[in-house]
Amino acid sequence: MCNLPSAEHMDQPLVKLNGINEGVQVMVQTKLEGADDPNKVADAMHTLFPEFPLPEDAEHPEFGSANHSTWSADDVPLGCFLTMLHTQRILDTALDAMGRLLEGDSTTFSLSRQAALANKVAFPLPDESPLGGVIEVRLVSPNLLDWLHAATWHKGRDRVPRTLDDERAMAKDGDASTWV
Known about the structure:
Elements: E1 25-34, H1 38-48, E2 67-74, H2 79-87, H3 91-99, E3 106-112, H4 113-117, E4 134-140, H5 144-151, H6 156-159
Antiparallel strand pairs: 1-2, 1-4, 3-4
Helix pairs in contact: 3-5
């Protein structure tokens, strides 16, 4: 269940896109390494993707026996994740981060598991390995760029249009661009 404020507490409607039945293939995965606690990883996954199927045989790390496993699933609905982007008002950042590795009809991006435990969405900077691990998301669609624009659209784009890699895009090091 996505624990977010209701639409009546927001100044814009909640997003209706979820990636499923919209021509977008969604793959979500995370790697458990070392002493990662499967219960905390499960909580992080379900904060962003409540319908992510958890493995039944998740092993807890023990002294002398580290965790090394990968949880992955296809066709995971993105509705809660997209709603969180709207609620947290990070749609331009999301467009930049989700589209940074866009090649043809596919893209991949990472999300911080530690931020998810705090009910936040955070996109780690490129080549960063944040404490707590990451969730990797891969999207594939023949109309992916259009879908990314629609999924991250907000009213401000009526006045200040945005596209991927425009002059208002986030810098490669994560710094915000200064709008004139």
